[in-house]
Amino acid sequence: MPRFADFIGGSTPSQKLLEDYLKANPEWVRLEFKEAKQVPTHGLRKSIAALASTSGGDLFIGVKDDGGIEGCSFDPAALSGALEQKGAPVRDDVWTNLVQVVGDPKQILLAHGSRVYWLEVPEYGWVVAALNDDGTLSLYDRPGANSKELVGLAAVDFFNRPNRARLLRKVYEEAVEIDRVYQPVFQGEGYVNENTVAALTRLVSSKEWDRFTKRADRAWVQSDQYLGLFLRLPASYVAWAKYGGGGKIVYRQQQSEMQQTKNAMADALKRIRTELEREGILPKS
After folding, report:
1. Domain around 187
2. Selection from 27, 26, 24, 21 nearest residue 9 by Cα
């Protein structure tokens, strides 16, 4: 099933293109319809949470379950208000602001004056939760044409299930942590101490990192301008650390190499962040 953006191929979304798309594509894992005279607050939230936490998809508001186009008349501000999920419990392990997940909803104007809202939901880099009427948060899966609330061990398994987006975000966060550890590496005479070497080795040797870099379809990781740089750091640091009491020439060489590496790391982090923001895996900074 193609995504709507691929189906229209860069054309401006219109009622005719939407009608053609809906005739060929019923609701399924990556496609959701919402018939709405007013903002379908909870149903909308759980659908976005389910799509974003799994493989992403398209959500159309103003379309009946059978694909018939009805449209809706509420304004974008009302929709954004529901998506913000104000009052959601603050957590650092799930995402609750759905505006940051889907961005600005696109409007497809209809002949009779109403509109259909089109939400492009990315496969997000966080587990996304929906706010319930009682102020609690729930997780949702998308195994078919409906979003399914998860409870008990099913919720635990879902929360721990990796996907490409979450893994990419994890790698980025580890790269940021490596950069943070790197900042104080210049010791008294300019060489790296054993604690810094151990911290870097631990970070780059993590299971998440290993799983990520061994995937054949991630050859770009081995590029000098990306994460391949980080993967070589521990060996370099160990070599520098062993200089110990070397002369001033050695220190000068170390400092020059380390400064070059630091600059390259900053550039790599910027490139990685830009890619993840473009894919919707991280919110725009």
Report:
1. 164-278
2. 21
